């Protein structure tokens, strides 16, 4: 058994001393301090020195990497990208500026912004042959299934950006992924409803072009609603990055083996799909529809609190936020504005959501477990008002998160301390035992 004595302070040079009670041996483990937030205990020498691994299923207390991109203070409900608050970024920037910030470390000046937009938009089109991939899917395929397949397939088309050792090729692959994701997601939607694919329009901004490719048709002009486009742009900013979440960690892990960026992002998309992660926005809408009306909310909350029911309040709770998710605060505010603009009066699902939130926030069960609304609680209501089908919600998340994934992937490749990701385990299966030939097995 080991006991860890806490670091006397979290300054550089501080250590945590681990005492093995069985042998009396002591080991000083260095404490590394970040800019803000908890310091970390560097356990890289632990196994060599003691023969022990650490055990942390779900990585609840494990830092997997060093990063300069995103900072979250879950207790205070703070989210910063490269030091800028999510509130400032959503209020004052557009998505392309935030992409530049995440990818290159700084907000662009006007000239850099124009160049970056030009660099990205010149990659919005897909190789024409990729359109044939779509016809291989059933019309009712989930857009996330299509995204996983088509994004993975990009590596079969863009051979000139697969060399991960070459910074120029890495940047081209990054631009390609950011630029092509909306095209692919919009095509997945068009295919599902049997409408012709719309080629991207590079005179429109990122969100406008996505709306155009999704809702436009070749036989008549499409007028972008600026309120809707700005709201979608904000939603993209809110989803752009979120530190070492499950899908980002997947992208890093896949990339740590040297896999190409298109394959890594496809792995991230697959991870995002789950209802505990990006799939929650779709799950929230299904939940609200199932509840049906405001008066059924108390009954539903009762079921959530009954562990035998196995029902979760989707859009509530977060591994890191033990306070209101700052992204949910922004969305909640915008939700009413967008619904008003779109003439959606008395949206019953919004009424149910507000009632759910009101009751849950007063309830001891949720208070004790520090469960608050997260980003997905309100996003689906806005997407629905914008006319996106429920199945597209997680695809919208994937479009926005691509820049975060690719920024984290680039950071990992450039990190000299990076190694192939290879967790260890606590083995609890049988010890070595004699082999029994087939004819002697009971
Ligand atoms: N509804 C009811 N109870 C919950 C919920 C919920 N949404 N979330 C957590 N709990 C309870 C859970 O049952 C447990 O209770 P107890 O201690 O009595 O066993 C306690 O809270 C801790 O839960 P946990 O599962 O250990 O917490 P976690 O950090 O592993 O899970 C989570 C985080 C986000 C997966 C979880 O809160 C959840 O399933 N939420 C609903 C899905 C959701 O909205 N996901 C979107 C996350 S934000 C967007 C994104 O990052 O993708």
Detailed description of the structure:
With 442 residues, the protein is of the alpha+beta class. It contains 18 helices and seven strands. The strands form two sheets. It has a four-stranded antiparallel β-sheet. A three-stranded antiparallel β-sheet has the order 5-6-7. The two termini are 40 Å apart. Bound molecules: carboxymethyl coenzyme *A. Carboxymethyl coenzyme *A binds next to loops.
Brief synopsis:
The chain has 442 residues and is α+β, with helices and mostly antiparallel strands. The chain has 18 helices and seven strands.
Strand content: 5-15%
Residue share in helix: 40-55%
Q: What general outline do the C-alpha atoms trace?
A: globular
Strand order of the largest sheet: 1-2-3-4
- Based on secondary structure, the structural category is alpha+beta
Number of DSSP-assigned strands: 7
Oligomer: single chain
Number of helices: 18
Report how far the terminal alpha carbons are from each other.
Answer: 40 Å
Weakly predicted, low-confidence segments: 5-10
The main pleated sheet reads as:
4 strands, antiparallel
- SSE pattern, N- to C-terminal: EEEEHEEEHHHHHHHHHHHHHHHHH
Radius of gyration over all CA atoms, rounded: 24 Å
Question: Which structural traits does this protein have?
Answer:
single chain; 442 residues; alpha+beta; 4-stranded antiparallel beta sheet; 3-stranded antiparallel beta sheet; globular; binds carboxymethyl coenzyme *A
């Amino acid at each position: 058994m080991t006991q860890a004595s806490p670091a006397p302070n979290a300054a550089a040079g501080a250590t945590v001393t681990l005492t093995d009670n069985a042998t009396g041996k002591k080991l000083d483990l260095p404490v590394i301090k970040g800019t803000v937030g908890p310091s970390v205990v560097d356990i890289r020498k632990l196994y060599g020195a003691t023969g022990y691994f650490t055990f942390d299923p779900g990585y609840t207390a494990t830092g997997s990497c060093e990063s300069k991109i995103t900072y979250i203070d879950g207790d205070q409900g703070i989210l910063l990208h490269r030091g800028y608050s999510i509130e400032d970024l959503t209020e004052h920037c557009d998505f392309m500026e935030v992409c530049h910030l995440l990818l290159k470390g700084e907000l662009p000046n006007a000239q850099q912004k124009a160049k970056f937009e030009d660099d990205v938009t010149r990659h919005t089109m897909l190789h024409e042959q990729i359109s044939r991939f779509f016809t291989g899917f059933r019309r009712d395929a989930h857009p996330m299934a299509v995204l996983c397949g088509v994004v993975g397939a990009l590596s079969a088309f863009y051979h000139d950006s697969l060399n991960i050792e070459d910074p120029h090729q890495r940047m081209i692959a990054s631009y390609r992924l950011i630029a092509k994701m909306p095209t692919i997601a919009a095509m997945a939607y068009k295919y599902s409803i049997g409408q012709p694919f719309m080629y991207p329009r590079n005179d429109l901004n990122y969100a406008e072009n996505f709306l155009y490719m999704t809702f436009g048709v070749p036989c008549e002009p499409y007028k972008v609603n600026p309120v809707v486009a700005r709201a979608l742009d904000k939603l993209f900013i809110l989803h752009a990055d979120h530190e070492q979440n499950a899908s980002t960690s997947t992208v890093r892990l896949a990339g740590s083996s040297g896999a190409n960026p298109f394959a890594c992002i496809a792995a991230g998309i697959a991870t995002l799909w789950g209802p505990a992660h990006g799939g929650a926005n779709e799950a929230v809408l299904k939940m609200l529809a199932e509840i049906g009306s405001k008066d059924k909310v108390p009954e539903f909350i009762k079921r959530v609190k009954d562990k035998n029911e196995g029902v979760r309040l989707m859009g509530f709770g977060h591994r890191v936020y033990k306070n209101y998710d700052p992204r949910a605060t922004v969305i909640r505010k915008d939700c009413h504005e967008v619904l008003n603009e779109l003439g959606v009066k008395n949206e019953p699902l919004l009424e149910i959501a507000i009632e759910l939130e009101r009751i849950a926030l007063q309830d001891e069960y949720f208070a004790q477990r520090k469960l608050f609304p997260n980003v997905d609680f309100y996003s689906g209501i806005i997407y629905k008002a914008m006319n996106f089908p429920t199945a597209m919600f997680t695809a919208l998340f994937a479009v926005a998160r691509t820049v975060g994934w690719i920024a984290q992937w680039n950071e990992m490749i450039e990190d000299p301390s990076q190694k192939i990701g290879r967790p260890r385990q606590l083995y609890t299966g049988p010890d070595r035992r004699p082999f029994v030939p087939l004819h002697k097995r009971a």
